[in-house]
Amino acid sequence: MSVFNWRTILVSLAVTMLTSACGGGSQDSANAGNSLAGKISAGGSPPPAAFGVTDSGGFLTVTSGAGLVFKVDENGGNITSIKYNDGPELQSQTKGSHIASGLGATVSYSVSGSVAKITLTTSTLIHYLLVRANENNIYMGTYVTAEPSVGELRWITRLNSTVLTNVPTESRIADNTGAIESTDIFGLANGETRSKYYGNQRAIDLSIRGVTGSNIGIFMVYGNRESSSGGPFYRDIQNQTGGDTEVYNYMNSGHNQTEADRMGFHGPYAVMFTTGATPAIPDMSWMGSYNLSGWIDASGRGKVVGNGLAGMDGNYAYTVGFANATAQYWTAASTTNGNFVRSGMKPGTYTMSVYKGELAVYTETVAVSAGGTTTLNTRTIQGDPSADTAVWRIGDWDGTPRELKNGQTFNVRHPSDVRNASWGPVTYNIGAATNSFPAAQWKDLNSPTTVTFNLSAAQVANHTVRIGITGAYAGGRPNIKINAWTATAQGASTQPNSRSLTTGSYRGNNTMYSFSVPASAFVTGTNTMTISVVSGSSGTTYLSPAFAFDALDML
To answer: pTM score, two decimals?
Structure first.
């Protein structure tokens, strides 16, 4: 008898013995026997368990058929276990993975052909988990009619930090020496700072991002942002690593958010599992065939086609954004002619904004119909402050402070971080390096900022000083004094009611303050302007009233 036949007999005997030991005839025992048979016959690891959902012991166990196995607690809907390729436990065992802070949802499931669908339902929210056979992805969508009680709509994947060790540095709070602001911004012994607010991408840049470990990578696909809030340049939490490695998809929050929360269907989005390599972003349009509340098919959507933008500055990228109470969209304009196309839009009337960098320089109202195309002929940009001839100018009118001192660090560290240059107070002489002018000014930290400039006799005339801010905290806004003349203080800008400059964001509502300065305020030769922070509120150091600069000039 050949060696092959002996192996076949041994495998058959092993399966028979295991089936008998398990009580015989059950699906579980058959699967166990098949698994052992595969292991013995191949001489290695068992093949992945078959695709499907098992309902047992108060848990739904979902098996992809390609190596991913996870459990959903039927008492509330949290994911309590995740394993991949028979590897170690990936799910944190202190908290589950879930929407908000856990839903207490009613859990149901169905399997239709090659797709398993788990539905988590509350009175104001329905969350979907979908798995396709032989794909190691958890596809998701979230339908809401009211904000969760925690005040944030977010998916949190809470992972085992001893396994998922390659994480973004800025949001790794392990080994900190304690909180330096509130309970969510931390210091390290070397004076550096870390927080879940740091290192986050703009919404326009969200695509796929993940964490990895030995032979494992877990990636969030952020998907459609149409029902999120804040526009194309908004940033929100993506990661935090302390006791757990956390991977988030924030759909809305109170984190310096400039728009009201949007309801309806959020997504689709997904969590993808690999052996470490970043996967390609999958097509998720198939999910529309599985009766997801709030889903709108492509046939029920429209598009906008723009045939050019005149007046663009070739040194900047331009983004065309659309927003109303139920949806937001954006697309890039061609750098050569300003043409743009935005498809897949819900029907409705939108405010269309053209952004130079992050500064809106043109707006109009646009209507979109289901299945229709709205065509716009060439639009001329008319709201760019850079188009005005200035006596002097500091910074770029682009809606950001990034070219100014410490302007590129807001998103990655606390302003007190030792890696930042001193905030001042600063005295800036016109013509000096732009990055020596402070990106932000706090009432209790680096105020006033002083600007010196020279005027000829012919330039001693009425002038307008403009100061643009990208956001503000505690009602902070600029006021100026030129030589002996002091401007009348102006009102506070409209800004989100939350921390901003310390939580990874310079971006609120861009606002320009304009000061009409009489000729009598100026002198021939050297002039001195001081910029102070005005506010009816108070605070200390980095939580005192403040604002971030966009640019400033004198016309």
So the answer is: 0.90
